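Appendix B, Record 12. Input sequence as logged:
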Amino acid sequence: MFVSMSKVVQKIKWEGKKPECCDFCDQKLDTSFVDGKVPPNGPWGIMCFLCHMDAGSRLGPGWGQRYSLETLELIDGQ
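Logged structural output:
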């Protein structure tokens, strides 16, 4: 008997309008963007990955998610 161990992976996609610029530095987004917050209790926004790293935030539930700008699929932060 053969049992397939493959699992169906559902891709999480950004549902909003495709962002164009970082809300924090106002630069055009390159290959990805983060929907995240600035710690400790700062605002949430769309930011480039560099602004996200400069803010000292992390990725994960309650912190932020990183999406591909091309496919709008989740890259990291689940």
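Residues 32-76 form one domain.
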